[in-house]
Specification:
Blueprint lengths: L1 H24 L1 H35 L5 H18 L3 H10 L2 H30 L35
Helix pairs in contact: 1-2, 2-3, 2-4, 3-4, 3-5
Protein name: UPF0716 protein FxsA
Keywords: Membrane, Transmembrane, Transmembrane helix
Organism: Rubricella aquisinus
Length: 164
Amino acid sequence: MWIFVALIVVPLIEIGLFIQVGGWIGLFPTLVTVILTAVLGAALLRQQGMGELAKLQASLNEGRDPRGPLAHGALILVAGIVLLTPGFFTDAIGFALLVPPVRSAVISYLAKRITSNIHMQAGAATADRHPPASEDIIDGDYRVEPEDIPDDGPRGSSGWTRRD
């Protein structure tokens, strides 16, 4: 649901910002600024992406947990995608995600959210899996009764199994 809202709200914010910035600095400088931020963002993405890739490789070679470098790399990828999207609002988000302390804060927030969602879902799954035991126990004996099967062939008197 929040993705749908973002797909509606973010373009509206971008349109408003294009109008405001275009009114302040003019059309041509606005377009140049959008293109320059995309180029600068791509260059920063490449530089930081290579750095995170080197950290990931080092953690794997040393046998350390690669989750941190993987998470940072994923957020750098998101930053790159957002920076390549034309607009001032998305550029601000993209540049913010290229700052390591901001990435660490986002990773910490997402880790807490994911962990709490997993615990809630696991609790609900275990509650559904084990229904409460009933106190009414009925003890009894049983026996298997032979079934009376008519001798009309292997599957009865259907037209499909009839032997002529």
